[in-house]
Amino acid sequence: MTYNASNGGALKARMLRTGPDKNQKAAGANDRGIVSQADWRRPRVRWSMRISHGLLLASLFLVGLGPLLWLGKAAVTPTQDTLREPLSLWPNGIDLENLVTAWTRVEIDRYFFNTVALAFGVWLVSIVVATTGGYALSVLRPAYRKVVIGLVMATLFVPAVVLLVPLYLTILNPPLVGTSMINTFWAVWLPAGANAFNVLLVMRFFDSLPREVFEAARMDGAGPFRMFWSVVLPMSKPILGVVSIFAIIGAWKDFLWPLLVLPDPAMQPLSVRLPALQKFIELDVFLAALAISTIIPVVLFLVFQRMFLRGAGLGGAVKG
Amino acid sequence: MSTSSTTTERDPIPSGHEGTDSAHGADAPAGLAPQVPAERGLATASAPRRAWVAWLNAPGRWASSGGLSTLIFLMPLLLSFGLFSWWPIVRSAIMSVQNTNLVDEPTFVGLENFQQVLSDPLLGTAVLNTLYFAALALVLGYPVPLAAAVLMSEVRKAKGLYSALAYLPVVIPPVVSVLLWKFFYDASPTGVFNTVLGWVGIDPQPWLQSADSAMPSLVLYATWAAAGGTIIIYLAAVIGVPTELYDAAEVDGAGIWRKVWHVTMPQLRGILLVTFILQIIGTAQVFLEPYLFTNGGPANSTLTVLLLIYRYAFENSLGGDYGAATALSLMLAGVLAVFSAIYFRITRSWSTS
Amino acid sequence: MKSLGRRAGMAGALIASSALVLAGCSTSEEPASTTSDSGSAEAAPAGPVTVKVAIDAGLEPEARDAFDERVDQFEADRPDVTIEAQEYTWTGTTFAAELAGGTLPDVFTVPYTDGRGLIEREQIADIHELVNELPYADQFNPNVAQAGQDADGNMWAIPIAAYGQGLHYNRTLFEEAGLDPDSPPTSWDEVREYADTIAEATGEAGYAQMTSSNTGGWILTTLAYAMGGRTESADTTMPTLDDPAVKEALEYLQDLRWEDDSMGANFLYDWGTINQDFAAGRIGMYVSGGGNYGNLVTQNAMVPDDYGLTVLPLEGEDPGVLGGGTLAVVNPKADEATQAASVAWIDFYYMAKLADEEQAKANAEVAASLDQPVGAPELPVFDRELYDQSREWIADYINVPVEQMAPYTDAIFDQQLVGEPKTATQEVYAMLDSVVQSVLTDEAADIDALLADAQTQAEGIYASAE
Fold first, then answer.
1. Cα gap C297→A257, rounded to integer Å
2. Which tens digits make up the pLDDT trace of B104-162?
3. Closest C-alpha to A159, from A148, A150, A167, A169
């Protein structure tokens, strides 16, 4: 037997909303899940749930945190110890020097700042394109909006790989600009704007804003620019947060594209530089370098955990 | 989105172009009613045509009624998509029938590039490897996150801790985690994984160093790296199942297992299908793992389609074969477009139901 | 057509004029010296020129200091030239794109194997007129000079170094296994025996081999040469992977790997990673270029006492040791003045230390003062006499353990040096990578079938390279 909710349509409608509503909270408000209160009262259920949750938590610790902890340990362990007894805790003492060497001698700092600069530019470009585009398409609604939306959505059909070569050649010899953008951050920053996901996400968020607010603002004599700056943007913080997180994390993770357009090591971000460095530096220093490059995204995640997970869940809601 | 993040780490292309996977998340459902694909999108625009006509007749009125400021707002979008998405897509189609070496003027060669790619003995290997990767990724990466999500939905205390731990691997930069895992996969008896296996009395495994186990090793890593995102999606979906359904099932005397099988799973059917398709689209473009772990080895056992494209274009000391690279890209795109279309159909039918 | 002809004519004139100036200068210097002192170009005209020169990636700070000091010396001689270092390692894979993208340095180095293709496709500057003005232009070892010449014998690329393959071994692992580090193996059977002993006694890889990033084909070819075979017909038009020595080499590896299990656990090494593991004491023996010592010590912190080097055993009929080397080339997009300054830099930085006593000493002194290795074995780019002389010049500064390399240096000049295959070398190597990987990772690998298939593929590669 299959239970089909009569209100399934409504539920989906609710979940499909990418707007500011708190669908997780709404769903969580009802204080039960698959296991009922009555089930919980049965000792066998209670115990098996506790045990399976305990096992789950233990394996999540092992799998989620284990590699990070190991990396942290290896970052301050001499090479030979890591090679011979990878799972012992400092058989021959701690070597903090690795971190210093990685930061100074290997110049991890430079690649680190390159990464930050790249992420910042990608973030800025993504936000500008997504908000202005989303605003024009959702709020200003020109007659040709469907064409533009169609064209933007069409890019979703094209696997990223198709763009690889022609985009590379475009960067090599860009129209309008004239000079090659290879070995400049622009080569990474500018293409980041053409992200259909961001544009559509922001557009649908704007769609969900109450139209009365716009009408009222228009009555007060707000032009399209003031409306954008003083009405729409301040209302968009939640979605901007999500877009920002994904833009920054995406830039931090990016590999193939910067590898192609930033051949000069002085310009490369960590993700591109690390595999190359592996060939030149000793293992302990290399692992320290890996640890350093992991810190920022992990800290970002821990600080903005809610926003990350909401973003992740949001994607699910959109899809489901 | 989380599938986007699941696939993002595999996705070799800049965040700006992860198009396929992540992007699908956003658009699909509601009334936007995709009149895609692109070519058709252009043809269906009758409303816009009216607008253009109106504009041509009375440009002054168009500007004063806000048309100009709209265009200003659209400019960043049009420029970035035009230069870095639409034009490259068109150019890709052009290049696939050309011979381009960046030095001489491109020459038209018809379907030669396609023939060349199709007669490359490595193409079959790459396609099979990619399918193998996708299949393994489904076997490993599908049930585990689902089970974890169902279990997690019943956690009453410290739910955030579970989610955070599960999601942690997703935020580690993939290059870092690949290089780290490459070290874990050291095939000598003192390797990290082999040491752990040794504790429970299992012989050292060759991991990446054998044609048989290299691909499963890559998939194991990919699953680890992506599972967190999938878990969060499933978790949201499980929590979203209307509780009345459970109440109703209990009235019929259903136990926990029956509730899971007959209430939860049917409710998740849609999202399972979507993640399935997104995973296919994502795995078809797997690049980072074979590139960094094995560079396609041993003996081409981890050579994937995208790695082959990369080699055509960027790893040929006789000069990049951009024609062959774009030709193979387009063929891959054709296959993926079928999956994308299915995906759109599914999500669209929901939004209209 | 007309404008093209004219442009070429002008370029010719420019080359000629700068060459004239160069020639004029060197005559004003003391004549008849075999040296290339940098002074010869001192008065070269043209306004200030900036030359971007390639340096190795990932240099230790000391090595970088040594380089910078040489730059200062050069710039002191040539105030009109500014040298800018650019971290760059030539890779065939991205070269065309880099050339088109304008990201190449003006001076960079490429392996012998790639020189021919670059010259044929005119992807490097034709500097032969400038080269001909160098005082040692006619003193190159003819075998070596060939690597940088076009079909007419004009030198487009300057050979700056040559190597012959050697067998590197870890003396400490030898001792741990009860082997005498002063008498390394002299036959392939002994290599196998030693590898097995080391693996048994220490648990490390007795013998390891590169297989990735085209090195698989490179080393397989090396082994085939050493066992008396060739992988290309004498006229370079056909691959000969069906040569019995190729099969013998693969069977040899198969025995080490599957019968003895003496090759450790990593079968995806490339040049960087095998050096790393060797330096870390995880490999007993491996085959690579004889000049690896510098990399092992400066980039991988190898303990000098561990290091040992000997020649490859040569067996079978007409065996040879595979040799190759490095060419210095100039970016074809560099203008005339930059090209002239580039050649002056190559002369100063790479060549003078080989051909000029004063420069050789100065260079060695800088390197030694910064603890950079001086005196690692190389093969002569010029004739043997000049080479021996240059070793004497720097004798005081040599700081590498020469005795530990004696088994190599004593014998290498008696071995027949055979160049690498000439047609589509890297493509065939890349294809052979997977053959070697198959043998090392698949116990059931069918060597005959693999080689038959490889031969077919190589014929295809040769056909399309023509």
1. 33
2. 678 888 898 899 899 888 999 999 999 999 999 988 888 889 999 999 988 888 888 99
3. A167
C219 with C304, same domain: the answer is yes
pLDDT at C287 over 90: yes
Check residue C305 and report its DSSP letter.
G
- 3-state class of C325 per DSSP? strand
* B316 contacts C92? CB cut-off 8 A: yes
| Count of positions (residues) in chain C | 466
What is the residue-wise DSSP string for C404-422?
Answer: HHHHHHTTGGGSPEEEPP-
User: Is B314 within 8 Å of chain C by CB?
Assistant: yes
Q: Is the pLDDT of residue A132 over 90?
A: yes
Q: What ipTM was reported for this prediction?
A: 0.78
CATH annotation of B2-11+24-35+112-352:
1.10.3720.10
Share of chain C above pLDDT 70, in %: 88
Tokens 């504009």, residue? B55
Structure letter (DSSP) for residue C262? -
**Residue B188 pLDDT greater than 60, yes or no:** yes
pLDDT reading at A208 higher than 70: yes
Contact status, residue C225 vs residue C320, Cβ threshold 8 Å = yes
Q: What is the mean pLDDT of residues C236-246?
A: 94
Contact indicator for A293, A274 with CB cutoff of 8 Å: yes
Question: Containing domain of residue C449, as a range?
Answer: 164-320+411-465
Give the mutation candidate from C258, C267, C440 for the B interface (greatest B CB count, under 10 A).
Answer: C267
Helix residue ranges, H only, chain B: 2-8, 20-27, 38-43, 46-57, 59-62, 68-81, 87-95, 112-118, 121-141, 143-152, 159-171, 174-184, 192-199, 214-240, 243-251, 256-259, 265-283, 288-289, 305-314, 322-352
CA-based nearest distance B212→chain C, Å:
8
Q: How many CA atoms lie within 13 A of A199 on its CB side?
A: 32
Predicted structure pTM score: 0.78
Indicate the Cα dihedral angle C173, C177, C182, C187, nearest 10°: -100
The answer to whether the peptide bond before residue B298 is cis (omega within 30 degrees of 0) is yes
- Tell which residue, A35, C351, C185, has the closest CA to residue B257: A35
Q: Beta C307-311 vs C158-170: how paired, if at all?
A: antiparallel
C296, C376 Cβ separation under 8 angstroms: no
List the single range of B46-55, B264-273, B311-320, C382-391 with lowest mean pLDDT: B46-55
Which residues belong to CATH 1.10.3720.10 in chain B? 2-11+24-35+112-352
Are C89 and C158 members of one domain? Answer: yes
Contact of C34 with chain B, judged by CB distance below 8 Å, is answered with no
Residue A194 has, within 13 A of its CA and on its CB side, a CA count of 30
Which residue type is seen at A2?
Answer: T
Structure tokens, B205: 């495994």
CA atoms of A297 and A302, how far apart (whole Å): 9
* Residues C149, C154: Cα–Cα separation, whole Å: 5
The reply to whether A170 touches chain C by the CB within 8 Å rule is no
| C12 part of a folded domain | no
Reported as a pLDDT band with limits 50, 70 and 90, residue B265 is confident
Phi, psi of C202, deg, nearest 5: -115, -15
Residue-by-residue DSSP string for A26-62: HHHHS---SS-HHHHHSHHHHHHHHHHHHHHHHHHII
Query: Among all residues of chain A, which has the CA nearest to that of B338?
Result: A157
Please report whether residue C246 resides in a domain.
yes
Q: Which domain CATH number covers C271?
A: 3.40.190.10
Taken in order of first residue, the domains within chain A and their CATH numbers are 104-319 (1.10.3720.10)
Closest chain A CA to residue C86: A264
Asked whether residue C19 is assigned to any structural domain, the reply reads no
Q: Is the dihedral of CA B66, B71, B73, B74 positive or negative?
A: positive
